[in-house]
Amino acid sequence: MAENLAGLVEETMAALPLHAVRPAGLPAMLAALPAAARQAALTSFKAEAGTILLFPGPDGSLAGALLGLGDKPALQGFGAAAGCLPPGSVWRLADDMADPEDAALGFLLGAYRYTQFKARPTPPARLRATSVPARARILAASITLTRDLINTPANVLGPGELAEAALALAARHGAQATHITGAALTERYPAMAAVGAGADRPPHAVLLEWRGRGADATAPLISLCGKGVCFDTGGYDLKPSSAMLRMKKDMGGAAIILGLAQAVMSLDLPLRLQVRIGCVENSVSGHAMRPSDILRSRSGLTVEVGNTDAEGRLVLCDLLAEAASATPDWLIDVATLTGAARVALGPDLPALFCTDDAMADMILRAGLAAGDPLWRLPLHDAYTSWLDSPMADLNNVSAKPFAGAIIAALFLRHFVSPGIRWAHIDTYAWNDSNRPGQPEGGEAQSLRALLGALNIFCNKNLQN
Question: Which domains, from first to last, does the chain contain?
Answer without folding.
Answer: 8-132 (3.40.220.10), 139-463 (3.40.630.10)
